[in-house]
Amino acid sequence: MKDFVLIFRLSNSSDTKPSPEQMQERMNWLAGIAAQNKLADKGNTLSPISAKTVKPDNVVTDGPYTEIKEFISGYVIVKADSIDEAVELAKGNPIFKIGGNIEVREVVKRD
Amino acid sequence: MEEKATAHQELLPHLFRLEYTKMTAILCRHFGLKHIETAEDIASETFLKATELWGTNGIPENPTAWLYTVAKNKTKDHLRRLNIFETQIKGTISADGFQAEQNIDFTQQTIVDSQLAMIFAVCNPTNSMEAQICLSLQILCGFSVEEIANAFLTKTETIKKRLFRARANLRNDNFQIKKLQKVTIQSRLDTVLKTLYLLFNEGYFSKSNNQLIRRDLCSEAIRLTLILTENPLTNTPQTNALLSLMCFQSSRLDARVSDTGEAILFEQQDKNLWDKELIEKGNYYLINACAGSTNWRTKYHLEAGIAYWHTTPTDENKWQYILQLYDQLILIAYSPITALNRAFAYAKVHGNKQAIKETENLNLIENSYYHSLLGYLYTDTDIDKANKHYNRAIDLTKSKTERKTLIRERDRLKE
Q1: Which CATH number belongs to the domain containing residue A6 in this structure?
Q2: How large is the ipTM?
Q3: Going edge to edge, which strands form the sheet with A2-10?
């Protein structure tokens, strides 16, 4: 089993406060992964408001990357045998209904 | 006047149980576990006074506060009497183990801390699991000896004996209830969780037919586990996994028993009776149980996972997931019942014929569930064998409810 990070991206900051129904759907999806014993870490939601970007020469800007419209809204870590399996797990997330997307990345283990 | 009397009769048993255990916990923390009897006496006297006064005067505006005030005064009286005895009769001043300060702190935080400490004091590994569960029911849940005996379908004398020894160990344990140490918590948490797990199972798979008792045991186990989630030291992934398991299982409590007290098999349950709110709570705690990238998962995680799929009727792959979870569970926590449950899941995935082989390999010929499972698996292909196995299961089972169900299943073979 390898670890894969699912990185959630949204394009509209108003969607970061989901409705109770959306929340419940999301919890169902996440619990389903946990119930397969494949949720390595429930991850976190990242605030789009309390956000700064630090650049070289002490330049600090407000917000996540302002140049692009998308921002990362959160992540979870799943366990899977292959990236295809991790992708299958990601497909059930309700984020697609509100125009978001999920990036799936394998965690590189260095020992 | 009559109205008052009935109101207090309804309110008191409920208040009694919950507040009695809290009060004893706080007083024990104050006096030390050595003097648990004193703490219990003061709490009992307080509730006795409430019974007397509230019946005639009506319930005070804030019943809980009233109870605590009375308890405080009774403690002061007790310490004063003790002091007189120590100084005037024995001629010493030392009041062994007792605190000279008379002000007991009944703030919310102390209540929570005391209850948590009491849970850890009661779950003493030197006591047998059975004794720990009895002690938990008495001290943490406020059950009477009769109620405990009812729940276990045991004689009150047996329970009394069990409690007597367990309480002696509790007094002599030198458990530092005043300040719960991190080390103590870490070394005892596994025992605590196991006791709560068994307490819950005692209710969920109760030998007793009484739905009220079962519900009581289950909800008490949940209440105590919730206390563990409120303290950062005990709010571990295992604790959350256990709580999640309890929520999922409880969501099906109503659907599992018919109006006549017969057990309803999973496949025949009315899914509308499942409690949605508890299922959502189960989801919540299951996700919390996966905090931190630990690669190992406890049996509570796996069992909660299995319970999750049982509450999810729609997913077409659910039996495959359940089988995978049982495959993992059997490696870390083998028990005959787990092996048989796995065989049932195996049948759901690979068909009854294949599962018969899996099951017969287990060779648990003295186990009633072994035979009822084989009875079920043979139903479509070999009615004689099915009948034989059901009969064996009916002979072996000790539960009345189960016998009823098995007889019903066996008789359906003839239809």
Answers
A1: 3.30.70.1060
A2: 0.78
A3: A39-45, A71-80, A2-10, A101-106
